[in-house]
Design a protein that fits this description.
The chain has 215 residues and is an alpha+beta fold. Helices cover 24% and strands 32% of the residues. The two termini are 29 Å apart.
């Protein structure tokens, strides 16, 4: 289903790009360019050093899948704009709602108490050509063993950079905190130590929410 969905996702994007310009296209393009500029600025900022902050030495990782085999398909909400939605298992009582529209894919996190929080990854990365999620979630745990609880999650997020060539992408690791008010805190661009940096951000207390851009 994810493969079929991705083919449909790309086909819809190509069809959208081939449509004639609408009357308000220039206004929408200006807004999109501004959002993309803000997202690029956030993503390209120098990574702050973490040597003066507390990184949890006991943190560990648990991985769960965003796949047809692991997830249970649901009927999307009528006004959500989603063409596919599924509930996927998390860890330590958490669940994830994975949904896809014709331009992007998003996840919502449901905590053990049932609180549902949308992580606005598509609006933070702000790509006119769209974006897609990886097929795994890395949960950063506050220790090891059955009693450990997650304090952050990491998921790969790819942005299409050329609406006419969907082989061209920029890949980030999106870090979201789960403590306090859950939110996206960091986008870590590709590098030799990308995974290490993402885990350091995930395990660092006090990371602030990224500003949400786009409509």
């Amino acid at each position: 289903m994810r493969t079929v969905l991705l083919v449909l996702f790309v086909s819809l994007l190509i069809a959208t790009c081939a449509q004639p310009a609408a009357t308000n296209q220039s206004n929408n393009a200006a807004k999109t360019n501004a959002a993309n500029s803000n997202a690029n600025t956030n993503a390209s900022k120098p990574m702050p050093t973490l040597d003066k902050v507390a990184v949890d030495p006991a943190a560990d990782s648990v991985y769960t899948d965003l796949s047809d085999k692991a997830c249970k398909e649901q009927e999307p909400e009528p006004d959500s704009g989603a063409i596919y939605q599924a509930e996927c298992p998390g860890t330590a009582g958490y669940k994830v709602i994975w949904s896809a529209s014709d331009h992007s894919q998003v996840i919502s996190v449901i905590d053990p108490q049932g609180k549902d929080t949308l992580l606005p990854l598509a609006r933070i990365i702000s790509s006119a050509a769209g974006s897609r999620l990886g097929d795994k979630i890395e949960w950063r745990m506050g220790g090891k063993g059955d009693g450990a609880k997650p304090h952050a999650l990491i998921v790969r997020l790819s942005r299409f950079i050329d609406p006419e060539n969907f082989d061209k992408t920029e890949s980030f690791l999106a870090v979201s905190r789960l403590t306090g008010e859950p939110c996206v805190t960091d986008l870590v661009p590709a590098s030799a130590d990308q995974n290490k940096k993402a885990r350091e951000f995930a395990d660092t207390n006090g990371r602030k929410c990224m500003e949400v851009k786009g409509p």
